[in-house]
């Protein structure tokens, strides 16, 4: 079964061999990373794999559009996609449920019953396990999941205002 390629709506992918550019492009939401199925987290995972598999790309740069790198996860889509809480869920109920009560769903989730609900697991194969250098260009703030993202990059260049 061939998975359908996601449309890039929350990121911009540019290939200018030998360098690739991935821009998180949700400036109206401070480049928050959507967790919904097909959202920014999955789009980033797909883009990282594209860079890894493209023989013309020798390195790639990740940056944010607008006035910041990223505000982290967009929690507005938390219960609609990649990490959808079962029944009560963490956000729907009043009790904090164990992590094992959360399932991962979506086209890029390799283990649908994953107990550790973090989108960076989706980024691993294309970013962390990529032999091509990844460079994060950070300006202004980089919060929450953005820190996970830049932690997996080979080089992080942060502007003095970061």
Automatic annotation (TrEMBL):
One GO MF annotation is: isomerase activity
**InterPro entries assigned to the protein according to its UniProt record, in alphabetical order:** ClpP/crotonase-like_dom_sf, Ech1-like, Enoyl-CoA_hydra/iso
A single Pfam family it belongs to is ECH_1
Q: Which PANTHER family match?
A: ENOYL-COA HYDRATASE
This protein is called what?
Enoyl-CoA hydratase/isomerase family protein
Q: Which organism is it from?
A: marine sediment metagenome
């Amino acid at each position: 079964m061939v998975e359908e390629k996601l449309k890039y709506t929350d990121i911009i992918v540019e290939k200018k061999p030998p360098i690739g550019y991935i821009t998180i492009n949700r400036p109206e939401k401070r480049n928050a990373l959507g967790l919904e199925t097909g959202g920014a987290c999955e789009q980033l995972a797909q883009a990282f794999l594209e860079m890894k598999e493209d023989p013309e790309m020798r390195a790639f740069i990740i940056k944010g559009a607008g006035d910041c790198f990223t505000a982290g996860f967009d929690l507005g889509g938390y219960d609609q996609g990649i990490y959808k809480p079962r029944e009560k869920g963490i956000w729907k109920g009043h009790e904090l449920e164990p992590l094992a009560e959360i399932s991962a769903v979506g086209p890029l989730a390799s283990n649908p019953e994953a107990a550790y609900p973090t989108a960076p697991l989706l980024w691993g194969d294309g970013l962390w396990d990529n032999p091509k250098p990844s460079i994060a260009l950070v300006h202004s703030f980089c919060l929450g999941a953005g820190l996970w993202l830049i932690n997996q990059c080979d080089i992080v260049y942060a502007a003095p205002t970061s």
